[in-house]
Amino acid sequence: MTTRVKRAYRYRFYPTDVQAAELSRTFGCVRKVYNMALAARTEAWALRQERINYNTTSAMLTAWKKTEELAFLNDVSSVPLQQALRHLQAAFTAFFAKQSMYPRFKSRKKSRKSAGYTSSAFRFRDGKLTLAKMDQPLDIVWSRPLPEGALPSTVTVSQDAAGRWFVSLLVEDPAVQPLPATGSAVGIDAGLGHLLTLSTGEKIANPGHERRDRARLARAQRNLARKARGDGANRAKARRKVAKVYARITDRRRDHLHKLTTRLVRENQTLVIEDLTVRNMLSNGKLSRAISDAAWSQFRSMLEYKAAWYGREVIAVDRWFPSSKLCSVCGTLQKRMPLSVRTWTCDCGATHDRDVNAAKNLLAAGLAVSACGAGVRPQRESSRTGQSVTKQEALRREP
Ligand SMILES: [Zn+2]
Fold this sequence. Notes:
In the N-terminal section; belongs to the transposase 2 family. In the C-terminal section; belongs to the transposase 35 family. The chain is α+β, with helices and mostly antiparallel strands. It has helices at residues 17-48, 54-66, 78-96, 209-226, 232-267, 278-283, 290-310, 354-371, 379-384, 391-397, and strands at residues 5-13, 113-118, 122-125, 128-131, 140-141, 154-159, 165-173, 185-189, 196-198, 203-204, 270-274, 313-317, 343-345, 351-353.
């Protein structure tokens, strides 16, 4: 079976002043429409226990555009506005499936500025991309080639907090084909001191520059906090500095995670991870740093889509599975395992590195369900039905 894989190619571009103004206007309208639709859906639910779907919000948008105070929505391409409603629909679907938190309002300062264009709202010809409401193609830096003959189905334009512009093209990539199957499986634990620990005993460190970059970020944030409220120009400058350092951290992290997930997916047929949900991560002090949280979700999503590309399997094991307290040799459960304990010896005589032991337990639990026919299902399916592996199940299924 050949699967057609869609893949996003992201590039920087440099808009003209006219294009930048058009895009900024579009971002503003996207945010406005998203927030109004979210308010309408929230209100309908809170007051009337009524669920509003995409079609209803789309009809609302048509009505909003006819009012005097929202007539400005007609000035931008209607496609990104429709896309915003689709994104909101997706956010609600994920929320109802208990995969994410309730959708939040987009803030003018903090939210990512972006606008999505489907094929009716852009023209891609001779390697030039022109968006709706624009006369000139975007000045894109083609840092890597698009696949031969690829035609984008969706184009997303965004601007980060440091003011840089990006365009992401979603295209079918015929080059991506399932890899030959391998027999290897790996358990992957999100550690404390390390980015990841594998059941093979390998520990993968955070990129070397991350510590220095974080120190720089902390310094820039302190500097911003010191700037007085009234001091507009210096405050804005300090804020841009924070955004710049942060942008560099996220760029480097993305590169690092790309290399890592490609390697893990190539080397292994089955990859077992812990199902850390958003909710859990936010309430958990040790993981609460925004950067670590984002790194984990990014890691997981890259792992999942690459596994789908290459015909691999990702299994997420229930987050209540006591992977650090369980001896991976004899299966005895320790009563307490404070975070300060890095190595420990079980009554059976086995000495464990805390994180490696946890990764081995994850692997065993994942393989137990995988080997047991009924338990094998695509990860997304299992978390939707809430049927991920519980500790008891995993132990029962162990040989
Ligand atoms: Zn033991």
